[in-house]
Amino acid sequence: MAASGPAEKADAQPEHGERDGIAAGRGIRYFGFFFVFYNIAVSCTTAARASLALSTLPLQTMAVGAVLGTEPAPCCAWHSTMSRLARSCRDHVQLAT
User: Fold this and answer.
1) Orientation of helix 47-55 relative to helix 57-68, angle to 10°
2) Alpha-carbon torsion 68, 76, 34, 32, what sign?
3) Integer CA distances (angstroms), 97 to 49, 83, 85, 91, in order
4) Which is nearest to 58 in space by CA: 78, 39, 84?
5) What is the DSSP string of 5-19?
6) What pLDDT tens digit does each residue of the chain (97 aa) get?
7) Cβ neighbours for 71, distance < 8 A, ≥ 6 positions apart
8) With CB atoms counted within 10 Å of each terminal CB, which end of the chain scores lower, N or C?
9) pTM to 2 decimals?
10) How far apart are CA 4 and CA 11, in angstroms?
11) Residue ranges of the domains in the chain?
């Protein structure tokens, strides 16, 4: 029986330093690109529409995560889905009044 070493594991997790680098790269991309493109988009629309887009961002993220399989489907996370939907509806009502 052959001993399995760390090099033989196909599904091994990245080392601690590699995870930090991956997380840092994602953070830099998010804070570097999202706000630049969001500011460009906001300059092309009204403040009310821009605030609605930003307030529904958690719902959009959840939907994309469910499609990609990185987050549980909304039917499996009923409480989370309803609380996010309620917050989004509250924001829409506040903007409408």
Assistant:
1) 40
2) negative
3) 14, 21, 19, 10
4) 84
5) -GGG-TTPPPPHHHH
6) 455 555 555 566 667 667 778 888 888 888 888 888 888 888 998 888 888 888 888 888 877 777 777 766 655 566 666 777 778 778 777 777 6
7) 62, 65, 77
8) N
9) 0.43
10) 13
11) 16-45, 46-97
Q: How distant, in Å, are the alpha carbons of 10, 66, 82, 91 from that of 52?
A: 44, 21, 18, 8
- H/E element holding 95? helix 78-96
Maximum Cα–Cα distance for the chain, whole Å? 72
Please state, in angstroms and rounded to a whole number, the distance separating the CA atoms of residues 42 and 54.
10
* Amino acid letter for position 31: F
Tokens of 82: 């309803």
